């Protein structure tokens, strides 16, 4: 295996796991964020039923990425956890409340409104925490001799609040376009109506973050305005996908808005990766600084190479089995 750089292989695996989680858990978190604005309780039933068969499987990618990160790049854990302890706690608490709401909302009649709130607020808190963590990563951490030296709330800044709100809007856009694809009638019309507004919010935040980021990180400035001019293709492609979302909603397409929204995420994610590569613990520590011993990486890699095809197979099978529209009065509960 000397001819392969195990750190790069692991970076690709974890990067793939992260984007899979963002896309697949993003739309069901977005459904939760949109929950209070739904036209009525029947619409909320359809919204929840549209993600009920797949939401827990979507979170497999979070577990896979987190476990791989611990084994392959232990320095990331030793810095990120103390730096982002409160943010990670909020993320997990939100996911727990959202998960409980899935199980109890349909069983409860008298207290259903409280489970609606748990589903909404759990989704919103989890989405905000994820976005704030991304903002904190872009800003960088105070690290000396591989040890985090900052405070517990250093991650919470105006920039990270903006990225948190931006990801909430982005997940809501994913949820709306997912609902276009999975619903019909007045629920689908409502989803068509809110999608352009959510798209506008996402683009506004996208523009502010794009203008702000180069002034926060010198490496990003160098990449965007010096070293890697080709990097501009990623925001250009993201904007093209945004235009496709807008036009496809105008023409009442069903699947295209969701696919194009996925494209916005993918190209934005690639732009972030190329902006920071190969730094994994900003501002100074690279993949190779954070990596575990090659023997540990190889041992874990053998197992992961068996696990990922299994996860991809049962994920594809689940989406295939539960394809099609979700209608009022029908569901998987």
Determine the structural class based on helices, strands and strand pairing: mainly alpha
Main sheet?
Answer: 2 strands, antiparallel
Overall domain count: 1
Q: What is the correct CATH architecture? A: Up-down Bundle
**Strand percent estimate:** under 5%
Number of helices: 14
- The ordered string of helix (H) and strand (E) elements is HHHHHHHEEHHHHHEEHH
Number of strands: 4
CATH topology, by name, is: Formate dehydrogenase/DMSO reductase fold
Percentage of residues assigned to helices: over 70%
Q: Distance between termini?
A: 48 Å
Sheet with the most strands: spatial strand order? 1-2
CATH top level label: Mainly Alpha
Rough shape? globular
Rg over C-alpha atoms, rounded to the nearest angstrom: 20 Å
Low-confidence regions: none
What average pLDDT do the residues reach? 86
Report on the structure:
The protein is mainly alpha-helical and 333 residues long. The chain has one domain: Formate dehydrogenase/DMSO reductase fold (Up-down Bundle), CATH 1.20.1630. The chain has 14 helices and four strands. Strands 1-2 form a two-stranded antiparallel ribbon. A two-stranded antiparallel ribbon has the order 3-4. The longest helix is centred in the middle third of the chain and has 32 residues.
Brief account:
By secondary structure, this protein is mainly alpha-helical.
């Amino acid at each position: 295996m000397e001819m392969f750089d195990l750190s790069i292989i692991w970076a690709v695996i974890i990067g793939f796991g992260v984007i899979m989680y963002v896309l697949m858990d993003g739309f069901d978190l977005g459904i939760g964020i949109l929950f209070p604005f739904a036209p009525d309780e029947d619409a909320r039933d359809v919204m929840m039923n549209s993600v009920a068969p797949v939401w827990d499987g979507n979170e497999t990618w979070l577990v896979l990425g987190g476990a791989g990160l611990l084994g392959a790049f232990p320095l990331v854990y030793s810095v990120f956890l103390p730096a982002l302890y409160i943010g990670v706690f909020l993320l997990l608490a939100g996911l727990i409340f959202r998960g409980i709401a899935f199980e109890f909302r349909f069983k409860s009649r008298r207290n259903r409104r409280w489970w609606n709130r748990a589903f909404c607020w759990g989704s919103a808190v989890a989405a905000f925490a994820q976005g704030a963590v991304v903002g904190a990563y872009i800003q960088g951490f105070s690290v000396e001799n591989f040890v985090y030296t900052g405070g517990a709330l250093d991650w919470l800044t105006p920039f990270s609040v903006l990225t948190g709100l931006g990801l909430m809007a982005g997940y809501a856009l994913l949820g709306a376009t997912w609902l276009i694809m999975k619903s019909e009638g007045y629920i689908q019309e409502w989803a068509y109506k809110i999608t352009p507004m959510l798209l506008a919010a996402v683009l506004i935040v996208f523009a502010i973050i794009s203008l702000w980021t180069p002034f926060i990180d010198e490496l990003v400035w160098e990449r965007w305005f010096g070293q890697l001019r080709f990097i501009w293709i990623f925001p250009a492609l993201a904007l093209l996908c945004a235009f496709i979302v807008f036009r496809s909603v105008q023409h009442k397409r069903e699947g295209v808005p969701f696919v194009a929204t996925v494209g916005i995420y993918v190209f934005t994610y690639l732009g972030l990766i190329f902006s920071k590569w190969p730094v994994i613990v900003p501002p100074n520590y690279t993949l190779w600084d954070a990596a575990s011993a090659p023997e540990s990486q190889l041992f874990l890699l053998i197992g992961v190479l068996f696990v990922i095809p299994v996860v991809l197979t049962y994920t594809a099978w689940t989406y295939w089995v539960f394809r099609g529209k979700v209608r009022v009065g029908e569901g998987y509960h």
